[in-house]
Amino acid sequence: MNPRITFAPLALAIALAASPVLASETEAETAVVAEAEAEQPAPPAGPAAPFAFTRPVFDETWATIGLGIGMVPSYAGSDDYIAFPLPLIVGRVGGVGIAPNGPGFVLDLNPGKPGLAPRKGPRVAFGPAFRFRNDRNNRISDEVVARAGKLDAALEVGGNVAVAFPNVVKPFDQLSIGVQVRRDVLGAHGGWVVEPQIGYRALLGKAFTMQAQASMEIISDDFADYYFTVTPAQSAATGLAQYRADGGVNRIGTTAILSYDLDRNPLNGGWSLTGVGGYSRLLGDGSDTPYTAVRGDANQFILGAGVAYTF
């Protein structure tokens, strides 16, 4: 059930359980299925077999849908935390992989064929990427920052490409390295975001799946100016010093996700529980702006938990 889980300001945000590891979730789930099947006892031979194996849920079309709750910063750079719902949808429809991308999603147009055999060799994943950003649009806990005024919501649209390497450290694990490039199409910040990412996924026993992701966020001048500049009018309203922000490396961070299959059988789908924790740090002008340096904190944390159903 990638990343960096919220509709709050979280560049690393993930939607409950799966920050995209820049590769098809189908491939990662296939690894879970393969190991689980390998541990199943062979059915007795002959017509008198007392049971039959069901078809695995991870085929050409499947989905995981979930909902949880997380604690996230009130805005990017805030030291106030708010509770926020964390929705999740991940799966494969008509041969196209779908994975969450913070408050958004990524499509994988090259997910590979579904199946139970371990993957051999690297695979290139690519497709469109979408991210919704409503930073300082609502629920601004700091009264001083709130007086600077609300910002418009942004919809960032672009592309994602990555290379996924299976069986790197242990059987059925996966390492993915890739990058997203997105631009706001709603005219809010109107700028660009480049997000290199590296992710790792592995099985821990029969029921647990662990994911970890590290990423960097590089922003354009338009993005930095919109979210981090303190204009003369905003300075007069808040009492904060005027500040002009420029683009560059804006954030680095990491997220870890642990999922537990409730019936300890990932073959058959069903219910699972997920916990997520993450840390990121704002850098450059995102750290130096008075919204962060005076009223907030460059260190940003997330913590959440939820439940999901796979069918």
List keywords for this structure.
single chain; 311 residues; mainly beta; twelve-stranded antiparallel barrel; 12 strands; 43% strand; elongated
Order of helices and strands: HEEEEEHEEEEHHEEHHE
Distance, first to last CA: 13 Å
How helix-rich are the residues, as a percent range? 10-25%
Largest sheet: 12 strands, antiparallel, barrel
Mean pLDDT, as a whole number? 83
What assembly state would you assign to the polypeptide chains in this entry?
Answer: single chain
General shape = elongated
Strand order of the largest sheet: 1-2-3-4-5-6-7-8-9-10-11-12
Low-confidence parts: 1-34, 36-53
State which percent range the strand residues make up: 35-45%
Number of strands: 12
Number of helices, where a helix is a run of at least 4 consecutive DSSP H or I residues: 6
Helix-and-strand structural type:
mainly beta
Please compute the radius of gyration using only Cα atoms: 21 Å
Question: Can you walk me through this structure?
Answer:
A twelve-stranded antiparallel β-barrel has the order 1-2-3-4-5-6-7-8-9-10-11-12. The protein is built from six helices and twelve strands. A hairpin with a 3-residue loop joins strand 8 (192-204) and strand 9 (208-219). Helices cover 14% and strands 43% of the residues. It has helices at residues 25-38, 143-146, 221-228, 232-238, 284-288, 290-293; strands spanning 62-73, 81-93, 96-100, 104-108, 123-133, 154-166, 174-184, 192-204, 208-219, 248-261, 270-282, 299-310. The chain is mainly beta.
